[in-house]
Amino acid sequence: MNGIREIFDTGIRQNIFTMLSRKGNIIGKGKRRIGILISFIVLSFFSFTWYWSNEGKCNPFTAYSCWTGMPYDQPNPFRPSKVGFMVLTPWLAPIIFDGTYNLDVLNAQFHQRGVRVGLTVFAVRKYNIFVKSLIETAEQFFMAGHKVNYYVFTDDVRAIPKIMVKEGRSLVILKISGYKRWQDITMRRMQFIHDYIAERLINEVDYLACLDADMKFTDNVGVEILGDLVGVIHHGYFGKPRIEFPNERRNKSEAYIPVDTGDFYYTGCFFGGRVEEVYKLTNFCHNAMMEDKEKNIEAIWHDESYLNKYFLYHKPTKLLSPEYASNDNGPTYVIKRKKIIHVPKNYRVIRN
Ligand SMILES: CC(=O)N[C@H]1[C@@H](OP(=O)(O)OP(=O)(O)OC[C@H]2O[C@@H](n3ccc(=O)[nH]c3=O)[C@H](O)[C@@H]2O)O[C@H](CO)[C@H](O)[C@@H]1O
Ligand SMILES: [Mn+2]
C-alpha cells in the first residue's frame, strides 16, 4: 500500500516540468519512472477508448476541436494546392489526389446522408482466386465507417471462399453465365452491371464502384471518391500527349476517338458514380459493343475503349488520380500514396 502511495506521490503528482528540467535522465528513476509509466498507460487508455467510442471521428490529437464542434481547419483561399498537379479539369471536375481533401469534413457530410456504397467485381473462370484478397483488403481500407455491399459476379459460386465482413456491410454472390473468350468476359461486365442495377442495385445502393478482380486495396479509399460520374486516370498515360492514348482509331467502330481529341486516358479497371449514372454509362458501352459486334469489329482495348468514348462526351464529374489504380511500375513522382494496385498475374495461365 505504501509502495503504491509512493509511486503516486513521487511519480504521478510530481510536476512534469520539474521532471523534464532535471538534467540527465528525463523520466527520473525507480518509483518515479513507474509512476510516469502508469500515468502514460492510463491516459492512453482513456484517449483511445474515447477515440473508438466516437467511431474514430475524433482522435486524441484533435480532441479540443471535437469538443468545440469544429473538427477541422478553416479553408484558406490564399493557400495554393500542395499537390503540384492540376486538381480541377477545364470542365470544373476535381481531380482527387492525396492531400487535396479533408476526410473528416467529407465523412460528416456523407454520414448525414447515410450513404450506401456498392462495389462490383467479376470473378469468372480462374479469376475467382483474386476475390479473397480484394474483399479482405477492402474491409481494411474501403469506405471505413460507411455502409458497403460487395457484389461478386461469378460463374462458380462454390469457388468463392467464405469471407467475414464487418457489421453494416454485406457480401452478395451473384451467379452469372461465363463466356468462352476472355474478351467477352471483360466486355460483358457492362451488360451485367446494367441489368443488375435495374433489377436490384438501384434499390440497395446510392453509389457504385466497379473494379477489376485482380486488384487490392493498399491504403484508405473513402468517400472522397464518390461523385456523380467518376473516372480514374490510367497511370501509364498521365501527362502523355493524347495522340499517344491507346484509343480506338478505326472510324467504323463505335469507340472511335480521333487523334486530335481526348482529355485524359481512363483505365477500364475502375469506374463508378451514382447508380443512375453508372446505369447510363453501362447502357452506352454495352449498346456500342453490340453495334460493333454486328459490324464485326471489337475495339482495341475492349470495354476500356468504349468507356473512354463515353467519358469523352459525358465528362466525369470527378476524376481520381492514378493513386487509385496503379501497379508496381506506376510513376512515383505522380503517385505519392498507392491506394489501389493491380496484382501481378501471368496472363497466359490465368486467361486460359
Ligand atoms: C488496368 C486496366 O486498364 N484494366 C483493363 C485492362 O485490364 P487487364 O489486362 O488487367 O484485364 P483483366 O485480365 O483483369 O480482365 C478484366 C476483368 O474481367 C474479369 N475477367 C476477365 C477474364 C476472365 O477470364 N475472367 C474474369 O473474371 C475480371 O474481373 C478481370 O479483372 O484491359 C481490359 C480489357 O482488355 C479491361 O478494360 C480492364 O479493365
Ligand atoms: Mn485487371
UniProtKB/TrEMBL annotation:
Keyword annotations of the record: Glycosyltransferase, Manganese, Membrane, Metal-binding, Signal-anchor, Transferase, Transmembrane, Transmembrane helix
Binding site for Mn(2+): 212, 214
Transmembrane segments: 34-52
GO term, biological process aspect, one: carbohydrate metabolic process
Subcellular location: Membrane
Major localization listed first in the record, in broad terms: membrane
Pfam families (alphabetical): Glyco_transf_6 (PF03414)
Cofactor(s) required for function per UniProt: Mn(2+)
Comment on bound cofactor: Binds 1 Mn(2+) ion per subunit.
Membrane topology listed for this record: Single-pass type II membrane protein
One GO location term (cellular component): Golgi apparatus
GO molecular function, a single term: hexosyltransferase activity
Record-listed UDP-N-acetyl-alpha-D-galactosamine binding positions: 122-124, 127, 212-214
Residues noted as binding an alpha-L-fucosyl-(1->2)-beta-D-galactosyl derivative in the record, renumbered to the chain: 234, 304
InterPro entries, alphabetized: Glyco_trans_6, Nucleotide-diphossugar_trans
Active site: 304 (nucleophile)
Record carries keyword GTP-binding: no
Family affiliation: Belongs to the glycosyltransferase 6 family.
Protein's UniProt name: Uncharacterized protein
